[in-house]
Write a structure and sequence with these properties.
Blueprint: H1 6-27, H2 30-35, E1 37-44, E2 50-52, H3 54-67, E3 68-79, E4 85-96, E5 109-122, E6 125-133, H4 135-143
Parallel strand pairs: 1-6
Antiparallel strand pairs: 1-2, 3-4, 4-5, 5-6
């Protein structure tokens, strides 16, 4: 017997939102990712400044797509009881395609990196994306 309470339905909807967001990420579909975000989305990245708004998110994604090819695997989504917060843990399987300023030279290195993201949800959309990973581990993998 499944739980059809409003709380359970809200949690299921939030989990589906996060899974759909990551499915779009894995397809390289930035436009669909943007559809899942609030207009004033806050985007906090590991080792970077806070960005706010969809256009800054789009610009960040363009830079990332240029420099990296990544696929997220083994995604586990956790949702708070009130469905306004979520977290996802996953493994990033990537290729470093083009050199990012201040980082080692890119020569097509492959890497696998555990990572996680925290989300705030508002009105059925993602209002905050905060991602963490171990930069030292990534540098060790790509610097050889």
């Amino acid at each position: 017997m499944s739980d059809t309470s409003p709380e359970s339905q809200a949690r299921a909807a939030t989990a589906a939102l996060i899974r759909d967001y990551y499915a779009a990420f894995n397809r390289g579909d930035t436009d669909t990712m943007l559809d899942f975000l609030t207009d004033d989305v806050i985007h906090d990245v590991n080792q970077g400044e806070r960005r706010q708004g969809k256009e800054k998110f789009r610009a960040f994604n363009a830079r990332m797509t240029h420099n990296y090819k990544e696929e997220l695997k083994d995604i586990v989504v956790l949702v708070s009881k009130d469905a306004t917060r979520a977290a996802a843990e996953f493994n990033v399987h990537g290729t470093y395609k083009n050199t990012e300023e201040g980082l080692p030279d890119a020569v097509g290195q492959k890497y696998v990196l555990p990572a996680g993201t925290f989300f705030a949800i508002r009105d059925g959309k993602i209002a905050r994306v905060t991602t963490y990973y171990n930069l030292t581990d990534w540098i060790a993998q790509v610097a050889g």
